[in-house]
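Researcher: I'd like a candidate sequence for this fold, 558 residues long. If you have to choose between options at a position, lean toward the conservative one.
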């Protein structure tokens, strides 16, 4: 019989009508061992929308009463020893995130395919041999991780136009033998990892995936040895260009007499040239209307910032990209307010209310370089949060939680607020991520806040931008791309409307003599490198593969 005195957290959650609950680590593992599983009372907490039970190897099964938690949006059951999951998990109609990674699962229940709201599915590090048919019914899926299993392929209906939001597919370290050319039906795919499988061919159709930015096919013994060499050493764009060339070659073979086709083309060339001239004139007009972003290579700037990343962030919030932007006019009129509103909108939309990624902006002149991306214990991390006094991370999160609960009561809302959502990302973490300057001051505490010490103002001329994520590096790059494009749009608007400085009631001293000259909307983005603790390059942003997709209104000059 279960002794409820061993589970005071459940009674407290029921009394306080809590919506989040986390059981993690040795203490809870021992209780599960003593009681033979999770206590039945857990399944009576109908208001829960976030439940995590992790790092409990004595947990081998989940009771069918899990179906009673109908408000669950996130179910995290990772790093246990589950051998099965009940089919009734499909009754959790509100579920958006399902994490069953690092267990002992040999199959997934068909019920998973009934989760119409599911956006993230992580079943990595199990013993799965097949995925259930019908995953295409989960039309909101955007992120799937099935790495480190025993899969030999994907279900027949997996390559479906219905999965038009699927952007990340991680299937590395399996035994997958074939990637179908129907992969092009996954129109939103951006990250595709099929490394360390048993692929012999990569379909040329992959080059038609317009949004694809990051692929990994390393560790496959491909029949095309040149392609095998490329996947082990080349960037995504080069590989896709090669596949595109192979695809065109096949079309030429199927099209019959290639020489005859060339001869027929010769007679059409003069007429085609006339059309091209008219087209060129239109292109020139469009080009003049484009916004301009100039990239300054890190080697061209002897004082370029860099960020050293400690190894410990890997288990907390591993992904980071940074850059420095100059030319952004924040002084004129409402320019600063427009920029802050745009950043908030990106946080709400593209960043999923900070749950997917977080943006932070700093005044470069207030930064004491070099910078380090590190972790600290919650009680040791001290930060002067925006508009607040210095406090520890524990104090800050407690205060924010109180404010979020009060906001929910005022609005009479049952669901968690956006603030609740990103606060819970750090629940159960022994260490918190932060960016620290040369003097040891925390200037950023993602995903919670950045520091008042480096806050941007109307007089800021150089901005240090950072994007962090626990999802993927490509997520950081996508968000940074979107941020820079939005900054270019705002700067163009400011230049065209010629607002006076301080017209929003925030005077900032004497007028800058340069401001009276013809305003320019051109932005300069200076590359920033992130390095490991040995000084080896981890990533540089922007690289040649960044700022290139879906930004037809911007001219990028390298």
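Model: Candidate sequence:
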């Amino acid at each position: 019989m279960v002794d409820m005195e061993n589970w005071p957290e459940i009674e407290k959650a029921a009394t306080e009508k809590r919506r989040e609950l986390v059981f993690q680590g040795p203490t809870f593992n021992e209780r599960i061992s003593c009681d033979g599983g999770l206590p039945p009372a857990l399944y009576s907490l109908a208001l829960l929308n976030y439940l995590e039970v992790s790092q409990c190897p004595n947990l081998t099964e989940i009771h069918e009463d899990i179906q009673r938690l109908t408000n669950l949006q996130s179910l995290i059951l990772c790093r246990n020893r589950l051998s099965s999951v009940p089919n009734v998990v499909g009754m959790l109609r509100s579920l958006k995130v399902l994490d069953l990674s690092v267990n002992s699962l040999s199959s997934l229940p068909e019920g998973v395919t009934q989760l119409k709201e599911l956006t993230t599915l992580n079943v990595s590090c199990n013993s799965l041999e097949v995925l259930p048919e019908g995953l295409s019914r989960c039309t909101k899926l955007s992120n799937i991780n099935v790495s480190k299993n025993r899969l030999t392929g994907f279900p027949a209906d997996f390559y479906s136009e219905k999965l038009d939001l699927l952007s990340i597919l991680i299937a590395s370290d399996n035994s997958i033998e074939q990637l179908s050319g129907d992969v092009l039906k996954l129109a939103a795919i951006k990250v595709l990892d099929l490394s360390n499988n048993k692929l012999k061919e990569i379909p040329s159709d992959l080059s038609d995936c317009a949004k694809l930015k990051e692929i990994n096919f390393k560790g496959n013994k491909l029949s095309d040895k040149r392609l095998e060499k490329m996947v082990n050493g080349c960037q995504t764009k080069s590989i896709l260009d090669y596949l595109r060339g192979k695809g065109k070659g096949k079309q030429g073979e199927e099209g019959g007499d290639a020489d005859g086709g060339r001869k027929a083309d010769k007679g059409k060339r003069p007429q085609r040239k006339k059309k091209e001239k008219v087209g060129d004139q239109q292109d020139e007009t469009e080009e003049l209307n484009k916004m301009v972003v100039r990239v300054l290579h890190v080697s061209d700037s002897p004082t370029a910032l860099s960020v050293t990343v400690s190894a410990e962030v890997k288990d907390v919030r591993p992904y980071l990209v940074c850059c420095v932007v100059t030319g952004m006019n924040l002084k004129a009129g409402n320019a600063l307010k427009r920029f802050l509103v745009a950043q908030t909108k990106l946080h709400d939309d593209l960043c999923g209310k900070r749950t997917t990624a977080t943006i932070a902006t700093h005044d470069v002149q207030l930064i004491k370089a070099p910078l380090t991306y590190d972790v600290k214990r919650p009680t040791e991390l001290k930060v002067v949060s925006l508009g607040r006094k210095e406090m520890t991370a524990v104090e800050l999160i407690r205060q924010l939680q109180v404010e979020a609960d009060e906001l929910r009561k005022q609005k009479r809302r049952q669901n968690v607020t956006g603030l609740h959502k990103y606060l819970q990302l750090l629940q159960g973490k022994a260490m918190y991520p932060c960016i620290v300057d040369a003097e040891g001051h925390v200037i950023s505490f993602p995903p919670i806040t950045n520091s008042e010490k480096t806050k941007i103002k109307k007089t800021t001329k150089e901005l240090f931008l950072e994007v962090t994520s626990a999802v993927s590096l490509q997520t950081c790059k996508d968000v940074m791309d979107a941020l820079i494009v939005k900054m270019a749009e705002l700067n163009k608007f400011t230049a065209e409307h010629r607002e006076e400085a301080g017209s929003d009631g925030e005077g900032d001293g004497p007028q800058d003599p340069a401001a009276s000259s013809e305003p320019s909307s051109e932005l300069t983005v200076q590359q920033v490198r992130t390095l490991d603790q040995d000084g080896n390059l981890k990533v540089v942003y922007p690289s040649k593969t960044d700022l290139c997709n879906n930004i037809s209104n911007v001219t990028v000059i390298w």
